[in-house]
Automatic annotation (TrEMBL):
Source species taxonomy: Bacteria, Pseudomonadati, Bacteroidota, Flavobacteriia, Flavobacteriales
Molecular function terms, GO-annotated: triose-phosphate isomerase activity
Protein name listed in UniProt: Triosephosphate isomerase
Catalytic activity: D-glyceraldehyde 3-phosphate = dihydroxyacetone phosphate
Gene name for this UniProt entry: tpiA
UniProt cross-references to Gene3D superfamilies, sorted A to Z: Aldolase class I
Organism expressing this protein natively: Gramella jeungdoensis
EC assignment: 5.3.1.1
Length: 252
């Protein structure tokens, strides 16, 4: 059975003290929860990963990275490799976030290299995609999402999908306070599962967790997460506060 996941993407927020404090608060709040089928993930910025790994040691809270470079090592000033992440004990990396695509020029071709490098190093990939408002308004959103998934992931063999998590993040809903309605999320998630089933098989499609991201908060999470094909969320703003984040973890 696929897992439910609440992943907090801290983006470029929180210094080292704030990061460890938030992580410690989350650790102490998850202690009393039954998380048999729910994974709780936090993704601090690179410089704070080590300290957050220490702060979460021994707890069920997982630490992941927000990005990585595709090369093994070398002259790539300012970049971080997959092996550097695994050497810290990380098991998961977010790739293809719309902010990386938009502000840092990450193309489908670059993402293929990143996905391959991550998987080759034993990392699980939370692969993000989603349409901009124009696409949604013109009814192009299914096509856009299909092409992002196809171009980024459909070169993979079926067995690689056990290390893939999908994150549908409509760009118009990220940090805007505007959320896709639970019905819009469900409709897209069902579509995503269908194209994965068509390309591979029903088993791969049913086993992959598909997260929703875009202005999820304690007020709307329950309804969104209750949808059949929504397996949790990739959370930005609401993940920066332990109470809000834990409220989301309790929203299944
Ligand atoms: O990675 C998280 C998403 O970009 C969602 O961000 P948000 O919850 O602040 O809208």
């Amino acid at each position: 059975m696929r897992k439910q996941i609440v992943a907090g993407n801290w983006k470029m927020n929180k210094n080292v003290q704030e990061s460890t404090q938030l992580a410690s608060e989350i650790v102490s709040e998850v202690k009393g929860l039954n998380l048999d089928n729910t994974r709780v993930i936090v993704t601090p910025t690179f410089v704070n990963i080590s300290e957050v790994v220490k702060a979460t040691k021994g707890s069920s809270v997982e630490v992941a990275a927000q990005n990585m470079h595709q090369a093994k090592s070398g002259a790539f000033t300012g970049e971080i490799s997959a092996e550097m992440l695994t050497s810290l004990g990380l098991k998961t990396v977010i790739l293809g976030h719309s902010e990386r695509r938009e502000y840092f020029g990450e193309t489908d071709a670059i993402l293929v290299e990143k996905v391959n490098a991550a998987l080759a190093n034993g990392l699980e990939v939370i692969f993000c995609f989603g349409e901009v408002l124009e696409d949604r308004k013109s009814g192009n959103h299914f096509k856009v999402v299909e092409s992002q998934i196809k171009n980024g992931l459909f070169h993979l063999p079926a067995e690689a999908w056990k290390n893939i998590v999908l994150a549908y993040e409509p760009v118009w809903a990220i940090g805007t306070g505007e959320t896709a309605s639970p019905e819009q999320a469900q409709e897209m998630h069902a579509f995503i599962r269908k194209i994965v089933a068509d390309k591979y098989n029903v088993e791969v499609a049913e086993n992959v967790s598909v997260l929703y991201g875009g202005s999820v908060n304690p007020g709307n999470a329950k309804e969104i997460f209750s949808k059949k094909d929504v397996d949790g969320g990739l959370i930005g703003g609401a993940a920066l506060n332990a109470d809000n984040f834990i409220a989301l973890v309790k929203s299944f």
